[in-house]
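The passage that follows is intended for readers who have already worked through the single-chain material. We present the inputs for a multi-component assembly, then the predicted structure in tokenized form, and finally a short commentary. You are encouraged to pause after the input and sketch how you expect the pieces to fit together before reading on.
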Amino acid sequence: MKTSRKLMTLVLSCLMVVGLLVGCGGSKGDTIKLGWMGSLTGEQAAYGICESQTLKMMVEEKNAAGGILGKQIELICYDTKGDAQEAVNVAKRLCAQDKVCAIIGPNASGQCIAIQSVLDQYKVPDLSTVATNEKVTVQDGKLKEYNFRVCFLDPQQGKIAGSFVYDELKFDKAAILYDINDDYAKGLKDNFIKVFAAKGGQIVAEEAYTGGDTDFTAQLTKIREAAPQIIFTPIFYQDFIMIHKQARTLGIDLPMLGGDGCASQVLFDAADAVDGSYVINHVSLVDPAGDAFRKQYADKWNGAKMELNGYMAHDAFLLWCAAVEKAGSADPAAIAKAYCEVEVTGMAGKIKISATDHNPVGKSGCVEQIDGKNKTYKFITYIAAD
Amino acid sequence: MFSWYYIEGILIQSCYTLLIVLGLSILTGYTGMFSFGHAGFVCIGAYISVLCTMGFGLPYGLALLVAGLVAMVFGAALGKITLGLKGDYFCIATLGVGEAIRLIFNNLNLNLNIGGKQFVLDGAKGIASIPLHTTLPVALVIVVIFLTATALLMNSKHGRSMLAVREDELAAQMSGINTFNSKMLAMCMSALYAGVAGGMLAHYFGYLQPKMFMMVKSTEYTIMVIFGGMGSITGSVLGTILLCALPELLRAVGDWRLVFYGLAVIIIMIVRPKGLMGGKEITDLKVFKAIVGLFRKKKKDPPSDVPGPGEELPV
Amino acid sequence: MDLQYYLQQLVNGICLGGMYALMSVGYSLVYSIMSFSNFAHGGVIMVGAYVGFFALTALKVPFLVAFLLCGVGSGLLAVIIERLVYSPLRKRKAPSLYFIISAMGASIFLENFVIATIDGTPRNYPTLFSNSIKIGSLSLGLDSLLMIIVSAVSLLVLMIIIQKTKIGLAIRACSYNEKAGTLMGINSSLVIFVVFLMGGVLAGFAGMLYGMRFIVKPTIGQVTNKSFVAAVFGGLGSLPGAIVGSLLLGIMEIFVASINSSLRDLFVYALLIIVLIIKPSGLMGKPVEDKA
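Having made your guess, compare it with the prediction:
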């Protein structure tokens, strides 16, 4: 009796697997498949959700207008949970199973670097939105054939941060607090120090924490002793908020400067703590030129606020459309080739990808100050990235 | 239908996970010691193997072997200091060691120059562009080798000693078994398996980052062993395939898959703590015997109510 | 670096330790009765933090009400987990490792259930107390002060319950020897119920305080692991041990972080291993043999 019940369980589980295999099969007719991956859950979810929602909105719009090359676009979105290993799984699924012609995302450098081997194997191009680490497109002097991006790089961002602090704010004493676990934070920190020190600035304290840490009082107390004029925090928004909250209770009223990972609507939940700090961005979040786009997004998604990633996803999508039209087919290799040949004007200005390093040329960064009282940003300046 | 490439990927993942689970099964399922730090050994294996292939230019097979051996040495060292601990405390110690290993790699910044070749280990940033050596045939061959080895080990004197330790350490000691040696052997073997699997993992993903070896991973491996059934190789295989491949196929279900995962563990602990196979092997099942019987000329079946190994697990 | 600096770091350490203490007594309470490490406790704390968040933002109740709601919510959850998950195992007299695994399962379930139903985005508590008290160059946030006071008061109340009341006596008896306690007419089910309830209520308080000071997210469990280390450090199963261990761990962690901030977690886990090797029973725990 017992054995037969066991057998039943086994058979049932096998049936389940087979059922799944069959059930998931079948694709919808003749469409052009575009893949997206990014964090829909986890720490950077706010970014990923905005990216995917923007893409969904734009794909719908494009499809309503007749699609591309006479075909409808099918957007396939997967969650990477902000995890590199998960990103590899997702990339494999998109390339091998869904057979997409191109991928947009993921929204973190670590994940972009991780999926390179998969992209090379399946020869599918990836166009990244906000992966700023230099290793995303070029590593050890070798160009990665299928990695592209529409944003500036960490050395450029470090340069923007360094020259903003030294030239614009005229500060020469800076402290750094960064996440040692995060490749993005580490890259940005190194590049900031390089530029800032070369200009004659002094790093009075360089403190690290480990991703997942929530208590920063030890490091902040040390920074307070070192008496800097500004704290550079190349990290993500939730840590940015916590560091601000704890700094204020420790009596540190200095402004902080965050990278492009800090700019988020979530900041305004802690408006009085982050008031007066600066963030670097790819595009001004209060530029009137983006009003229509922001409104369209808010109407579509229940009044949701547009994040930086939405602008970048918007630009990436435009570039993809142009590349598909240029290539005249949905062949991944042809699209990869076309990425370097087209030029579009997106939310963040003109985008032209260089064939030698797959990075956009002539980008500039924008620095904005957080206005906690009115829960908005105050545009400060544009700084050329090159 | 799913494309072959995609299924292949899942199969490779199942293969190296199975290796880890088999190793853990020797420690947990057969010897009765729970480890929540196995991801640490996998981490060591992964990094050592990458150092071997990318740094020293060793062939893949040799790199896996070195990775396994280094992990084994670590396992032996860990065993030396923690095997004296009892029950819960051993468990907690392995948890601490697993996390500590990950954190060490997180803080490790190396810039090695090996024969003119640069090998950079940049802590949390991870290593990219690792050659993709782990193909399905390779993975299958390795798994079959280790499956056979496990079966042989478990049917040897040492394997039976381990079982005795799990059932009753004191009694085992009194019947002349050197319990410390048995536990040590289990520890070393399971570290070896994890090390080799780590090497396979690194050369499958092409990317390595300490973050990939969080404590959750160790828990997942332990859960697979329990799910399949402690003290059963068939159970380990079944547990791995079900828990490793299913979530991947069920990606569409999204967030809920891990919810079910947690729920499944609780239900199994309550309803069927011996796991799916209940300490039996596939060769113990009546069905299997019946099928074999069909092909063979009627040979007398052994009386079927003889308990299989692990049947008498105290519950 | 002057004295003020070290004093400030000490204050920082006490704040952190106070929070660990609220969390670690939950681990220790359960261990003292049932001899297993209740890893689901981290999930209970996390749910408490979410209860507080929604009470403050969606229901817009005053702070004190939200605070009590946290305690009630987490306390109930802890009791429900005990009934549904541990009670069947207890009836079967399953080995303690099964409890640990079930607890792990429960913690995976809670964490992902929150991710699936709410979402994984970190949330920020509305600012309640933004002022800070200044004594010289020493600075102590009101929220930190509140945290220390709440920790101290609730731990004091807990100690009084354990030491002075009848049910406290029963708990102590059961933790000494459950079988003997039952033979003396103690309703061990009731004792376990009370233990989980008290641990849960404290977990809720800890969750709320944690959320106020830091941020609410489903993976708070990684932080609660450190409070578990504190419980082991102080001696699993010993309440004074958990409190002393937590405070010491908090202070040491802050000082390690102030020397080399990337080593703090490594230090915590290295401490765990060293304690287990040298004195597994921790600072104030009973000898291990009793409970193995």
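Commentary: Strands of chain B lie at 109-114, 117-122. Chain B has twelve helices and two strands. How closely did your sketch match?
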